[in-house]
Each structure stands twice: as C-alpha cells, then as structure tokens.
Amino acid sequence: MIIGETIKVAFQSMRANKLRAGLTMLGVVIGVGAVITVVALGTGAQKAVEDRIQALGANLLTVYPGQSFMMGRASDQRVSLTMDDADALGRDGTLISAVLPEMQRSMPVKYGNQNLNITILGTQSHFVTVRNYTLPFGRMFTPGDDKAGQRYAVVGFGVPTMLNVNAAALINQTILIAGIPFEVIGVLSEKGAQGSWQNPDEQVVIPLTTARYRVFGTDRLRDMAIKVADGVPIEQGMVDIERILRRQHKMRPGGDNDFQIRNQQELLSTQQQTTETFSVLLASIAAVSLVVGGIGIMNIMLVSVTERTREIGVRKAMGATRRNILLQFLIEAIAICMVGGVVGILVGAGGAYWMSESLGWNTLISPTAVLVAFAFSVVVGLFFGLWPARRAAGLNTIDALRYE
C-alpha cells in the first residue's frame, strides 16, 4: 500500500512540474533513442553481411593469379591462370564439385542510343549454380552455346535500369559489346555490392569460348571460382587446389605459391567484425547521453529536495520514516527515467524506421538492445537518484519544519 501511494505521489509531482520533468528526462530520451538507433544500424549491417555470405555460397573459393618468385624474390610479372589450370582442377580435384573459369574486362556496351562502359564477364554455363544466381527473366546459355561460341549475353540485374529499359523487354534484344552484336537471353537476379569496388549487378555475362576467341582474344583467366564438395571442410578444399596447381605450374617443394586462394567468407567475416566493433563503439558513445541525463536528474532532484524541505519535515512529523522519504524520492527519479526510457524507445525505433525507408540503410531493431537500453535507463535513475533521496531522508525534522 505504501509503495503504491509513493508511486502515485511521484507521478503527481511529475504532472505538477511538466516542463521541468520533460527537460530532465530529455537526456534519457536522447540516450535510449541513440543507443537503439545505432544498434539497429549495426545489427542491420551484420544481417546484410550474413546475407552476402549466404549469397556467395558456404563452400566457394576463388583462385587469382599471383607473382612468380626467383631466388626468393617476387617478380614484377603476374603468373597467368589459363584454361589448362581449370581443366586440371576439374580433372584431378578429388574434393572439388565445380570449377568455374572466368575472364573479365571493362568494355563499351551500346543499346539503342544508350552507351555504357561496364564489366564483361566470360564464363561457363554453370555460373548461375556456382555463384548462387537465379534468372527472373529469360535463361542462361547452355554448354552447347558455349562450345559453339554463340553471341549470347546474360545481363546483371542493374543493367536494364542503366540502359533505361524494362528487364523483361530486354530479352531477345540486341546489344553491342565493343561493336559486336549479342542477343540478350537472360537477366540475373539481384546480388548487391559485395563490399568492393565492383557491383556484380552491373555486368554482362557471355560464353567463355566467345569471350576467348571473339571478344578478348586471350586465354588468360582473371580468376577461377571453385566450389568445394558438400561436407568437405573449406580448408581441405584449399589444400587440394594448392596441390594440383603447384604440380600444374611445376613448382619446387618449399617454394612460394604463384597463385592466391581466397575464401570470400573470410573477407566478409572481417567486414562483419569491423561492423560489430563500430556498433559497440557508437553505442558506447550514445550511452554517454544516458550518463549525462542521469547527472541532470541528480541535479533536479537535489533542487527538488531543497524546494520540498518543509514538505519533508511535515511528512516526518506525521510519522514518515527515513525509509519512506528515501523511497519517495528514489521512485521519483526512477519514474522520470522509466518514462524517458519508453519515449526513447519510440524515438529510437522511429529513427531506425526512417533511416531504412528514407535513406535505404539496413536497419534491424534488436529486442535485446531495447531491453538493455531501458534497463540501463532505470539503473541510471536508481544510481543518480540515490544521493538526493538519501539527503532528503537525512533531514532533521525540526530543521525541515523551520525551513523557509
């Protein structure tokens, strides 16, 4: 009964001084809102990285050309990867389920009166399965199309927009790649930028044989995407690739590799760790607002104790104990923080929603972050309200009654 009456008195005091209570809880509102918004941004970024990892494939490796070494020194010339390397991996790889040779170059593309300079990727028909793509429009070229050197093109998801044409309307249309006509037979699903300078949605995919003999005029590969067999640890797949390529390149035992094997998941995991670190840092900075708000609450509560000294004396004279007075002022401080915490949650959620809808940023509100921010605001009220409450409880009854 005493607790319920004390809570009632606390909220009556807040209603009696609405402006002061509102300004007092402003620091808590800003702190809680900032924490929730920042954590929502960090969580959304982490979710985006996880989606990219899923889009890349859980067991995908990429082999790039490296440097040759002579007498322990790196040469300034890059070692080429060729179709012979890809054939050797496909033939001898015991832990490999697919090898996808790729060659790439930035070239002019023309459609109607639209001109672009974008990435042209020469690859094979199983590109969509290895790279985890689907085709919402049209189809992928077949192994027969590749072998025959057909002039077919499959465009990235963003290319129709760049050409100012509807994706479905682009199917069976002709585009010019370096002046060579290609028939568009498909549109790839959206992938999104993978954290690098290149956006896979802004590329045109053509058959590898066509790229080798009709467009690029070279046998040198930019890279090889390699899918490790299901159930095989990614590290064992890397060892299998290294064994085959070292033998293919006739490298001496103990020498450095003249190629690079990269696990794209590791690159994205590094990005995820960086995102987590910045999220924690920004959330910590935002939490400082809560501490500042707590100091403001302590200041106002001390002022309130001074203003209500005579009231405290009257309550003590009527039988209120030190515990009753302590509880009254402590609950007032906590109530201010709780109301500020609720408003802060609404402000933070609204800010995260606005950033997602208006700015297109990835945000994901974390229930854990909401609970932690709210609990922290209550702890702030408890911590910073304790001293003013103890000061009020410690007033002498006679001195309090005489206070003017």
Short description:
The protein is of the alpha+beta class and 404 residues long. The chain is 57% helix and 19% strand. A six-stranded mixed β-barrel has the order 4-5-10-7-9-8.
Strand content: 15-25%
Helix content: 55-70%
How many separate domains make up the residues?
A: 2
Our measurement of the CA-to-CA distance between the termini, rounded to an integer number of angstroms, reads: 32 Å
Structural summary, described in words:
This protein is α+β, with helices and mostly antiparallel strands and 404 residues long. It has two domains: 185 residues, no CATH class; 128 residues, no CATH class. 57% of the residues lie in helices and 19% in strands. The protein has 14 helices and twelve strands. The strands form two sheets. It has a six-stranded mixed beta barrel with strand order 4-5-10-7-9-8. The chain has a two-stranded antiparallel sheet with strand order 2-3. Strand 4 and strand 5 form a beta hairpin. Helix 2 runs antiparallel to helix 10, helix 10 runs antiparallel to helix 12 and helix 10 packs parallel to helix 13. The longest helix is centred in the C-terminal third of the chain and has 44 residues. The protein is elongated and about 105 Å long. About 2% of the residues have low confidence.
